[in-house]
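Sample pair:
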Amino acid sequence: MATLPDGRWYRPSKADHARSLEPSDGAKLVTWVVLVLVLLYFLFPLYWLIVSATKTNAQLSEGSLGLSDDPLSTMKANYNALMAWTDGMFWRWVANSVFYSTVAGVIGTLISVMAGYGMSKFKFRGASVLQLAVLGGLLLPIALLTIPLYIVMHSLGLTDTIWSIIIPSCVSPFGVFLGRMYAATSVPDELLEAARIDGAGEFRIFFTMVLRLLAPAMVTIFLFIFVATWNNFLLPLMMVTNSTELKPVTLGLYGMMSYFDPTYGAVLQGALLGVLPLAVIFLFLQRFWQAGLAAGSVKG
């Protein structure tokens, strides 16, 4: 207890907020239980993937959730089986996925922020129609557009090339939407007018000033495009049919699964190794990604 200057007693708060805002013990317990269940829901598939990569087909059929008796030797055998079945192309496929996702992410991020900046800061005829078209693009799944994209790429003679995967992956309606919402409030009109009065052109203003202000949104857009390109399966399945060297890792592992009586431990180990670049990029860009999401949600 503490005493006020007039002599009255009161119970001081132990936290940095008022006691009236403190949740009850029951609410805290429910929150912790829900958070633990959500954590287990997201971590269990990763745990199962790691454990399954150490087992043979017979051990996987047993349904045990623990490691195999000799996990190191089994992992080595599965890795050798993976390399043997893919003729040593597995790491080439991983490199292809990294290349496709990185190039599409960089180009798609630049296109998205340029389009978003232009839609938010320039007045032109048809702007509202264009914004509705972008919002409509958010409702269309990429699988629905795969066959039309294949027809276009085939007519241009781009199938079985890297461009048949990169070009469609560079377009992101979500990236344009996020770039427009972020640029609308993060780029002051006064700053643009001052730069124009000083004689700076629009390209110079964008590449020397606007890009720095849009950096958090750019990281978020890049990660979304990178992950979407990495996980896209139907598009490379349609576009790359005659070239083994151009396959991404998702398509390569699918070919292994379609083989008669595959070594599932080897396939799962390939999936585990193939997801490592995604984990590294997320850990490296995590703080920028969180900042971009938070800023975009507040400004939107």
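The chain has 15 helices and two strands.
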